[in-house]
Specification:
By secondary structure, the protein is mainly α. It has two helices and no strands. It has a domain of 40 residues. The longest helix is centred in the first third of the chain and has 24 residues. It comes from Candidatus Frankia alpina. This is Polysaccharide biosynthesis protein.
Amino acid sequence: AESVTALAVGLLVVQLHYADRQAARGTVGDAGRAGEDASLGAASISEARPEEGFSAPV
């Protein structure tokens, strides 16, 4: 049960981060998605370290 909660929180953090970056760029819809997906790739995976806990969104 704890791992399911941690996964849900992790996905929520990623979604909030994605939405925040879109809002900062002013991109909405499919027009800005290609660039967002490319920039979200390896960087977001390497930043996610569940063993160290999740960093608070700034």
